[in-house]
UniProtKB/TrEMBL annotation:
Cofactor: Ca(2+)
EC number: 3.2.1.23
Reactions catalysed: Hydrolysis of terminal non-reducing beta-D-galactose residues in beta-D-galactosides
Keywords: Calcium, Glycosidase, Hydrolase, Signal
UniProt keyword Signal, yes or no: yes
Subunit-structure text: Monomer.
Protein name: beta-galactosidase
A single GO molecular function term of this UniProt record: hydrolase activity
């Protein structure tokens, strides 16, 4: 915690210059203050605490998740004291004390006198003019912070929600010294056509000088703060070009105060029944919801955390982020400005809202603090019923850009922001409705469900429908706190906080890579066809490269305009594994596609030999020996019983009606096979044992129903005997039927783990389905064995993750019987708010056609087993 605070201090001190005519800043936070907690851990005594910080994360008070209504009613307060001195050269200046964020009610005193009215509302910057309260030498700052607000509407908006709730001075505190005559506030409206307008609150004449992002002057100083600039570059998430406006206040011919403000030229417009336009281009938002959060410090974050969060979002090819469910730190918005993310900035309100007097004050604080960030393109007035409509008029009145105002979950401002609609209902709205559709929450992740699962179906409809403006996934990271009272374990409040794409420390789940591929602005298929899904970027501004074996190189970037299609000028090789990488104009990887050009085969297996396998009958078994390999087959069922894999193959969701087994030699090979009968024994099984000890299995079968959750062959194997696997196929993450994208074809090694998504974070998980298997080597506690296939599109199944459900029975991962399976159809997975079959066609069951059990229509699966231990 101390190291985090130190890092925060180092970063913050670089924000403000200390030139004579600029605002002087002195941080009071970034150090330890005296502290007294009234209830819970370490209560009833004076000690010290790091500020900024959430006191629970430093071992004080009580940990509370928002649904813990009983603990919200408890009285828990923190008393802070801090002694400070004011620089001597600040004499004659106005001195304000600024709090960037305090949870929740804050009463501030200087030298025993109140600085002003108690502030209510956790996520908003506020200040007091304390010039008249200060004295020379040491001054004493005292702050009383009540975790629960005396205003019940504040509790309803901020604390009775689906997220962790904390107490404390959790954002920076500083003094600012201003000359007697100073610029109070600057509000900028700079549009894509180069029109610059600024509203400046100042007592006298102000001039302005414009600078580009390299510090070069654009023109000369202007006295008119409503002017046009030619040949400016616009700001967008793809090209986040920033400018700096330097405002100078003049008095008696001298410059007495200078304020610098970064901004971007850009225009946001909602065209009813059409779409959302940025700089005149219709945009679709690939967004995610994000809490301000780290496991060790709670809501206290650093610029470094903000950069890491935004870079991870951009790595997933996202272009938008929604603040949930409160305004973020200033540095997060600065990072979104500089790296390029569209932002929904949200007034707090989960399912409750502020009363009108309180909300009026907090809307003003939020807008005055955040208004100049070009990344903000929407304001949100609360969330999911936490809307006070009496506040709506304040947003356009205080924001000269008149950014659209949303009521997330509702139809408002011409935008339907419906949450968690089923695929058919939602797509019905897209295709048959008249309003712009932009769900501010969809595919609510829970453990391994949602996020990537179902996204491809949703996104293809969203992308191609002109009324869709995209949407925002819930949510970015698992909200897990380090519990000092529970041996520093990470607590996600069971399933409630485990709904992120990444873990508490940004561990990447499989959905991370699915989102990366589905939302890549460059779409590439195996024919080298390209679709450019950028809004402002031509493909010739990107770069492309290939790798196949030891050969690699660059591919000329084609000229394909945004929204257009074309071809990548690359001739496919005849064989091998081809990797194509696309990078954006900033040399960041968009995605690397892998294309196996060879079919699965067993060309390297030894199926020769002159010594025939031996077979003998022992009770119900045929016992077979070949080149040191011992096997046993059930004479009635044909199942393998005596081998590392046993009691298989058992058909899943099909009739295990193999019957009429006999054996015969074909040359030096031993063949054990069943008989085909269209009425009762239409599924057939054949084993071939080669002199080398290699075993071939061929199954011809019909699924048991028209719709099946999964289809394939199961075997038994003791889980405790497996140490890991090497395999050739897509990896290293597991897949679901409705989350197949994001993997990379190759050869992978995976050590066994028992990771449960969202409960432990040793990713990638081991148990589950793996697609496009060519072979798999099972590394056991005795000797290894390897399974190969010559059948395309086989899924490897490794054991069964823990079965979980919820009160709605939406998230229920189901798996076949047995332990190790080779599947030709696998199950999908649901989300917290939807069953798997309502997330789209990929989430539905597998469909097979078995007309009159015609053998030509049967599914075919061929496997080869090497039990030699090599």
């Amino acid at each position: 915690m101390k190291q985090t605070i130190l890092t925060l201090c180092m970063m913050l001190t670089g924000i403000f210059g200390l030139h004579a005519q600029e605002t002087d800043i002195q941080y009071l936070s970034c150090t330890n203050w005296e502290f007294y907690c009234t209830a819970g851990m370490q209560s009833g005594k004076w000690t010290t605490i790091a500020v900024p910080g959430c006191w629970e994360l430093q071992g004080f008070g009580k940990y509370d998740y928002g649904f813990a209504k009983d603990s919200i009613r408890g009285k828990e307060s923190g008393l802070y004291k801090y002694a400070f001195q004011v620089p001597a050269n600040w004499k004659g200046k106005q001195i304000n004390i600024v709090f960037e964020g305090v949870m929740t009610d804050a009463s501030v005193s200087i030298n025993g006198k109140r600085a002003g009215a108690m502030h209510q509302g956790a996520f908003y910057a506020f200040k007091y003019d304390i010039t008249h309260l200060l004295k020379s030498g040491k001054n004493l700052l005292e702050v009383k912070v009540d975790k629960q607000s005396a205003n019940q509407s504040v509790n309803a908006a901020e604390r009775q929600g689906d997220f962790w709730i904390f107490g404390g001075i959790f954002r920076p505190v500083y003094l600012e010294a201003l000359p007697p005559q100073h610029i109070e506030q600057v509000v900028i409206n700079a549009t894509a056509d180069g029109h610059f307008m600024a509203q400046v609150e100042a007592p006298a004449k102000v001039s302005m000088q414009l600078y580009d992002d390299r510090g070069n002057k654009i023109g000369g100083p202007v006295n008119k703060l409503d002017t046009m600039y030619k040949e400016i570059q616009t700001w967008s998430a793809e090209f986040p070009r920033l400018y700096t406006a330097e405002f100078s206040l003049h008095s008696n011919g001298k410059t007495v105060h200078v304020v610098r403000q970064k901004f971007g030229f850009r225009t946001v417009a909602v065209r009813p029944r059409d779409g959302v336009y940025v700089n005149g281009v219709k945009v679709k938002f690939k967004g995610v919801n994000r809490h301000s959060f780290t496991p060790e410090t709670g809501r206290t974050t650093t610029r470094e955390v903000s950069i890491e969060d935004v870079l991870l979002m951009k790595e997933m090819n996202m272009n938008a982020v929604r603040m949930s469910h409160y305004p973020p730190d200033a540095h997060f918005l600065e990072v979104c400005d500089s790296l390029g993310m569209y932002v929904i900035d949200e007034l707090a309100g989960w399912h409750g809202h502020y009363d009108t007097p309180t909300g009026t004050k907090l809307v003003k604080e939020m807008i005055s603090h955040d208004v100049n960030h070009p990344s903000i393109i929407f304001w949100a007035n609360g969330n999911e019923g936490g809307h006070n409509s009496d506040l709506d008029h304040l947003f356009p009145e205080q924001d000269p850009q008149r950014r659209p105002v949303l009521h997330p979950w509702l139809l408002f401002s011409g935008i339907e922001t419906q949450h968690y609609r089923e695929y058919n209902y939602g797509i019905g709205n897209y295709e048959n409705g008249r309003e712009i559709v932009m769900p501010t929450e969809f595919l609510h992740g829970q453990f391994d469900g949602g996020h990537g699962a179902g996204l491809e179906d949703y996104w293809e409809k969203m992308w191609h429908n002109p009324l869709s403006a995209g949407g925002f996934l819930w949510d970015f990271a698992d909200e897990g706190v380090v519990r000092h009272d529970l041996h520093d374990s990470i607590d996600t409040d069971h399933f409630r906080g485990a709904d992120g794409i990444v873990g508490p420390h940004h561990e990447k789940e499989g959905s991370f890579y699915t989102i990366k591929e589905v939302w890549s602005p460059i779409q590439l298929d195996k024919t080298m066809h390209i679709e450019n899904r950028y809004h402002f970027t031509n493909t010739d501004q990107c770069s492309f490269s290939y790798k196949i074996g030891a050969d690699s190189g660059q591919i000329p970037a084609p000229h394909i305009a945004p929204g257009q299609n074309g071809e990548l000028p690359f001739k496919l090789p005849a064989e091998g594994i081809l990797y194509i990488t696309a990078k954006d104009p900033y040399n960041r990887e968009l995605f690397t596609w892998s294309f196996p050009l060879d079919k699965p085969d067993v060309a390297g297996l030894d199926t020769t030999g002159n010594i025939k396998p031996l077979i003998k009958e022992e009770d119900s078994l045929w016992v077979v020996a070949a080149n040191g390999v011992q096997l046993a087959f059930n004479k009635t069922t044909g199942l393998l019983e005596g081998a590392p894999l046993f009691h298989g193959p058992v058909l899943q969701e099909g009739a295990n009606n193999f019957s009429g087994f006999s054996y015969a030699y074909e040359g030096n090979r031993l063949v054990i096979s069943s008989k085909f009968d269209r009425q009762e024994h239409y599924n057939t099984l054949e084993w071939t044992i080669f002199p080398s000890g290699i075993v071939k299995l061929h199954v011809s079968y019909f699924p048991g129903a028209y719709f099946t959750s999964f289809t394939g062959l199961n075997f038994s194997f003791p889980e405790q005997a497996l140490l890991g696997v090497d395999y050739k196929g897509n990896g290293p993450y597991r897949v679901w039927k409705n989350r197949l994208k994001g993997g990379r074809f190759g050869t992978w090694h995976k050590d066994y783990n028992d990771t449960e998504t969202g409960e432990s974070w040793n990713y990638p998980e081991f148990k589950g389905y793996y697609s496009q298997m060519y072979w798999c080597k099972f590394i056991t506690r005795t000797k290894p064995f390897t399974v190969y296939t010559t059948t395309e599109d086989v899924f490897l199944r490794l054991f069964t993750p823990a079965w979980k459900t919820d009160q709605w029975h939406n998230y229920e991962p189901i798996f076949p019987n047995g332990d190790i399976s080779f599947m030709q159809g696998i199950s999908a997975i649901g989300t917290k708010t939807q069953r798997n079959e309502t997330t789209g066609p990929m989430g539905m069951k597998n469909i097979f056609y078995d007309y009159e059990k015609d053998p030509a229509r049967a599914l075919q699966l061929t496997l080869y087993f090497d039990f030699s231990g090599k």
